[in-house]
User: What shape does this take?
Amino acid sequence: MSITQQHLLDAYRARSLGEPVPPAPGTPDRRVVRERCDERRFRAVLAGGPARPGLRDVLGRWRRRPT
Assistant: This one.
């Protein structure tokens, strides 16, 4: 059974029992990575080092690149 099929089965069971549907696989991944990058930048500043650009800064520059 694939992860998508398992999620659909879990969602069906949750709906039939009146419970909240679980989040789709991979939904919180981006948030977790961003929080980790922000934490590393924060700890670097506390240690007296320079804050490197975060994931949002890097992705923002990457998206704005001319093609």
